[in-house]
């Protein structure tokens, strides 16, 4: 995606239309820009899941999303300017900055934003059970 022109990027506009991403905001994660920076960084790095998909579009900077594979092992996903990721509801994950200690990201949601993170263990939520069923079905 064209992060330098995200306001007018036709590809982003089409993704938002097709996926019904009706709400967005922009967050800058940097010690000089994010209130309670140290606390937030620790929170982002706690292993957790959400009951809705987590969609992030990197507008500047870089960082890592760590996700669990089907064998419960970590996979590190490097994210940089122009990258978009959708983490499905129910997947355990965490986020951390890289050595640049800076990222500016668009947060997208279907409908009103839901910010609640459920730290592991959170296996009894329907979203987690649905995600695990998806993994089992894919393995067959």
From TrEMBL:
This is acireductone dioxygenase (Fe(2+)-requiring). Keywords: Amino-acid biosynthesis, Cytoplasm, Dioxygenase, Iron, Metal-binding, Methionine biosynthesis, Nickel, Nucleus, Oxidoreductase. CDD domains: cupin_ARD (cd02232). Pfam families: ARD. Gene3D superfamilies: Jelly Rolls. One of its GO terms (cellular component) is plasma membrane. The gene is Adi1. Its EC number is 1.13.11.54. Its main location: membrane.
């Amino acid at each position: 995606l064209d992060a330098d022109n995200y306001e007018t990027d036709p590809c982003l506009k089409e993704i938002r239309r097709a996926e019904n991403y009706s709400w967005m905001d922009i967050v800058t994660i940097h010690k000089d820009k994010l209130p309670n920076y140290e606390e937030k960084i620790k929170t982002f790095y706690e292993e957790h899941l959400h009951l809705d998909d987590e969609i992030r579009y990197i507008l500047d900077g870089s960082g890592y999303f760590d996700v669990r594979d089907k064998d419960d092992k970590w996979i590190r996903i490097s994210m940089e300017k122009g990258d978009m990721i959708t983490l499905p509801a129910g997947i355990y994950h965490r986020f951390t900055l890289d050595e640049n200690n800076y990222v500016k990201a668009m947060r997208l949601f279907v409908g009103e934003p839901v910010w609640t993170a459920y730290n592991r263990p959170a296996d009894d939520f329907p979203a987690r059970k649905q995600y695990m069923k998806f993994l089992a079905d894919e393995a067959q």
